[in-house]
Amino acid sequence: MNKDLINIMLPKKTTKYLFFGGKGGVGKTTMATATAVWFADHGYKTTIVSTDPTVSLSAIFAQEIGGETRVPIHHVKNLCGLNINPNDAKGVFTSRLTGVMGQMTGTFGGDIISTPCMEEMATFDQFVTFLEKPDSEVIVFDTAPTGKSLRELAMPFNWAGFMQNQITEGKKLAELMNNNNNDSFKDLEKDKNRYEYALSILRNKVSTVFNLVLLPERLPIEETHSAITGLNKLGIPVQGIVINQIILPEVIEGNRFLAARANLQKTYLDEIDTRFKELVQIHLPLLDHDVSNLTSLRKVGKLLYGDGK
């Protein structure tokens, strides 16, 4: 448990947005869901949102969790879940975008609708709604693996600027064509303002805490460094890291394999301390069981944040 991390994550009068990112397979979903359950158990109205295209959220809570409406989580008071499916979000977003740009397809609409980045744009567009109209005290985001998450988060920076150019150029073209219908441009302007507001939330260290999860191994360390660099370029600060699956001395019990792995981990833990010394750190032990039900999630939550007293 690290009291510094829980102190920056607790909501204070306004909604708190908590993100968990990192390389695939390091335990992002476990940390995000354990965090959501912990906050809900301690009386905070909480929502867990997954932007990972896998079905991990449904599997870990043993119930169907879709992307259209928030679903109350069984046996956890105060907790709801939502799984943003990129394909479903893409369909909704494409339909809306087609409507907005229907009058201007010949100018630029077709290029936007066929962009290979549509999936990231659609996911972020749905994600923005949680920042615009939060209905929970705590919203926890279980993000896709690092590279995809960075594309999703970077998208609005390019997209907002792109829309600004299209608004400007489109208005010029409309004037030349004597087209006085500005509804489409108003819709574009509205989307641009939505994205800019979302970015201001993501950059705010008071309202948003971005945590990265990693293992004490070479590749996760390098990907964590890359993610921090990428997020810093977007103006989004990383405040905490969770180092998962650490082999504790008391479990080695003369096992040569575990002893060798623990020694290797010690080297990487020292490197993590040096390279990420400015970040709040939490160390979690390697467990002898799966984290796949509420009992085990609550155990991880207690390891992360204590009993809340």
Task: Give the secondary structure arrangement, pairings included.
Blueprint: H1 3-9, E1 16-22, H2 28-41, E2 46-50, H3 56-61, E3 71-72, E4 79-83, H4 86-101, H5 105-113, H6 118-132, E5 138-142, H7 146-176, H8 183-202, E6 208-214, H9 218-233, E7 238-246, H10 256-275, E8 280-285, H11 294-305
Parallel strand pairs: 1-5, 1-6, 2-4, 2-5, 6-7, 7-8
Antiparallel strand pairs: 3-4
Helix pairs in contact: 2-11, 4-5, 4-6, 6-7, 6-8, 7-8, 7-9
Number of domains: 1
Task: Give the CATH H-level superfamily.
Answer: P-loop containing nucleotide triphosphate hydrolases
CATH class: Alpha Beta
Q: What is the fold named in CATH at topology level?
A: Rossmann fold
Class by alpha and beta content: alpha/beta
| Radius of gyration based on Cα positions | 22 Å
Structural features, described:
By secondary structure, this protein is an alpha/beta fold. The protein has one domain (3-91, 99-106, 112-305): Rossmann fold (3-Layer(aba) Sandwich), CATH 3.40.50.300. Helices cover 54% and strands 15% of the residues. The chain has 11 helices and 8 strands. The protein has helices at 3-9, 28-41, 56-61, 86-101, 105-113, 118-132, 146-176, 183-202, 218-233, 256-275, 294-305; strands at residues 16-22, 46-50, 71-72, 79-83, 138-142, 208-214, 238-246, 280-285. The protein has an 8-stranded mixed beta sheet with strand order 3-4-2-5-1-6-7-8. Helix 9 links the parallel strand 6 and strand 7 (238-246). Helix 4 packs across helix 6. It is globular, with a radius of gyration of 22 Å.
